Amino acid sequence: xxxxxxYITTPIYYPSDKLHIGHSYTTVACDALARFKRMQxxxxxxxxxxxxxxxxxxxxxxxxxxxxQQYVDDIVAGIQDLxxxxxxxxxRFVRTTDPYHVETVQKIFKQLYEQGDxxxxxxxxxxxxPCESFWTESQLKEGKCPDCGGDVxxxxxxxxxxxxxxxxxxxxxxxxxxxxxxxxxxxxxEMIAFINQGLQDTCVSRTSVKWGIPVDFDxxxxxxxxxxxxxxxxxxxxxxxxxxxxxxxxxxxxxxxxGKEILRFHTIIWPAMLMALELPLPSRVFGHGWLLLxxxxxxxxxxxxxxxxxxxxxxxxxxxxxxxxREIPFGNDGNFSNEALISRINADLANDLGNLLSRxxxxxxxxxxxxxxxxxxRTEGEFDADMVAVIKAMPENVSSCMEKLLIPQALAxxxxxxxxxxxxIDETAPWVLAKDEANRPRLAGVxxxxxxxxxxxxxxxxxxxxxxxxxxxxxLGLNTANMGFDSLTYGTPESYTVAKGEVLFPRIDTxxxxxxxxxxxxxxxxxxxxxxVAPVGEPIEHLPEISFDDFCKVELRVAKVMDxxxxxxxxxxxLLKLFDGERERxxxxxxxxWYTPADLIGKNVGVVINLAPxxxxxxxxxxxxxxxAADMPDGGASVVFFPDDVLPGSAIx
Length: 653
Ligand code: MSP
Description:
This protein is an alpha/beta fold.
């Protein structure tokens, strides 16, 4: 045991609406990391909170006829309830409307201004009058306001700027000197490329947004977004205020966990601000991927967000925590679907974990009345050495994955032990051993090793499944107070006295459950307007007939859209990055009028793979293939999608 500290933070969430299951992912991941470190004896500070200022919240409050403060108070109460429901063990919850945070932000802003790192300038952008909002070129939708769809005009506003550009060299040096600072590695390269393009200063105040922290020496201005939001990581420790006094103890942060889209702010603006303030820098910033919904982005506007409260109430918090932590690979996107969720619950939790516990406890009760004899033969059997080696390796393997933030792999290591134990039951066939009295020491040894696996699993699962682990411990006759990481030495309990309890995770009838979910979904949908029947039988202008061999020359394959963005130089084109089963390829597709990137990211599409690469837009891009789409009667295009379970690279015939 040691008293090393570990300071971990989530992003602070916008309380503009209820949070969805994607937001829960970040917090659950941080919770598992925080709990794991606590279990290893670290002095942990786990911070989360809410980012409460800005135009959007001001507008939402106005629409509801309440003050912005009333609006956020209501949503924040819901967020705090959600974290209770999801068993989040944060030590502190910061709100950017808390007076101590406001005090810190005003002090930081003033100091940066007085030392010349913040200066007054002019913000240029596209202004929408009814929405009183500035938009950048890329935020506009077909040249119109993305909120109301109305006209925008070029306008200027007096604003303060932070000299981010001044810190470009120091930031590059930081990434070089501390290679772990940005993770995963691929995102570090993205940030380096971003800085190398030329780093602009950052606009840090607004006169048009009233719901914000006033710049105290120039009260026409409010502090704009990032100086306010990012400062939470130190204000919540008492930097620049007297509300707390643990800044010296916990700062710098050991890990800022953030979604990939806000990594830039955390690895450029935030360290630049800290450099300007001459404060130590965080050790690591991890940019995780998104949880997609049926392959697409979750968005309130698409009405496809999944409510974590509904999911936790239906399947249990630990099942949802497990799914989130197991399903999103390190740094990449993961997919949420009802099928995937049910399959994880059934395969991993009900079958592997639940069955091992119930079979072990039942056999210990049946053959030994619940208490295993002490002098059992534990290591002599044919399969024991392997089984014991797997048990002994679990703590180190799990801990090393957690150190590298490989959370799904850490869980996989625990389940490797569970699966090995299930296999051991098949190999040793305790019911056969039980037939001969002479085998009793051996039988007790087999059951002891199963109990040991379950003890190791229960101990290591505590950070991930905080409700389930104690339920396992109770059936194994263990006291959770003695289940720290250091307790994981093979052979320490002399014996086990077990007692059967409730089934950990009841198996879900997949077909019935999916039908029920579909019915619930349908009931919640507004009635669909009846579709006009498409005309059939129109004459079609055909191409000349080709041979089968000719057809075989066209290589059609499924590819997964990993990333997609509009192309500045063309309103028609989208720039897609696709994984074709072998490598990433770039394709420019003329579907921007009918699809947004969010419609495509995560989806499987059909691609003509062996089309000669074609330079486009004056050679700025090279398109390596063609996305298959059907012509629509209105002149639009309908992309051919393949289901999620089709593997990228699969041939299309
Ligand atoms: N307020 C800023 C963060 C300021 S931190 C100083 C913000 N808030 S947010 O509410 O929009 O997003 C908070 C976090 O939730 C982000 O890290 C974001 O990536 C994450 N997620 C939102 N949707 C998500 C998924 N569908 N999947 C995974 N994480 C997602 O940005």
